[in-house]
Amino acid sequence: MKVLVAGAGPTGLTAALELARRGAELRIVEKRPDPSPFSRAVGITRGSMEILRPSGVAEALMAEAVTFSAIAFHVGARPIAHLPMDFDDRSRIWGLPQDRTEAHLAQALRRHGVEVEYGTPVTKVAQDERGVTVRTASDEDRADLLIGADGVGSTVREALGLDFPGYELPETWSIADVESAAWPDPTAFHGYLLPQGAVCVVVPLGPSRFRIIASQPDALAALPVPMQVDATHRAGTFHISVRQVRDYAQGRVFLAGDAAHCHSPVGGRGMNLGIADAADLAARIVEGRTDGYAAARHAASARIMTATERARRLLQGGPLRRGLATSVLRLAAAVPPVGRAFVHRFVGG
Q1: What dotted CATH number matches 173-239+319-347?
Q2: Whole-angstrom distance, CA of residue 9 vs CA of residue 106
Q3: Nearest partner of 157 among 223, 90, 256, judged by Cα
Q4: pLDDT mean over 101-107
Q5: Quick one: angle between helices 98-111 and 10-21, nearest 10?
Q6: Most buried in the list 28, 77, 148, 191, measured by CB within 10 Å?
Q7: Smallest Cα–Cα separation from 115: which of 3, 8, 274, 15?
Q8: What confidence tens digit (pLDDT) does each residue in 105-156 have?
């Protein structure tokens, strides 16, 4: 059986790697001309590490990533809760720029003799009872199955004519990846609740590298505490969509990762959800039981998207919701069993 994977982000690379290590014939194509230089997603959960352990990628990621020591919440600049994140295996989460995660996945895939074909966008998809015909910018290929892991603007999803129902949040969000040798808490995740429902977070990416995300147009300006910036790797704005395709599969074509679902970065679950999609699908393909994939992953994604939106609305809500959020956070900091349960729910993987 031959599988063609469209998209070489974490989802597509995981699908290809899991198929390759199980002996499947495959090809992976990517419309970008080169590997992405951007960090994008940064948090890697325990669940993702367990998925990537058999391929050897987990050990490589852990060796390079920052292990979060704690999660701290603030109202403005004032601390209100500090919760440890290293009290057991379930509480751990790692921070690493997405481009480095992709590099480790691609390197492991290369060890199985498979290279990503960059600069090869999918332009047309047609399927019949015997297989899928995929046209790219350079050729036409035939495969038994196609995995569309080609992101929010998925060409594969559009070729299937599938809707992507949902909504877009009204705010302009922003991001800044910076170097700051003087930042005083380099292994803790910091969340700041700002006036008018705004939020800002600081996520460790390396010994002196950090990701700042804010629900305002300028992430660094939104940060309510001083940060000495030594260098800026990337800065920009973005909008958040909350969407999920109704059917993750149509005939011999399957969708995974952002091609099937997208949501806010609260909780850092997007990349991990895509990795879980990919591993589940790869195992089902090899075992010949793909019929259950669409229902299983739609349900899993819907649960996470609901929880993510509930948390975002609580953190970004009006005075009553904000009051509830701060009360919960203070309780979690004051009562260790509550704090541990909160961290397990936050990490979620």
Answers
A1: 3.30.70
A2: 10
A3: 256
A4: 97
A5: 20
A6: 148
A7: 8
A8: 999 999 999 999 999 999 999 999 999 999 998 899 999 999 999 999 999 9
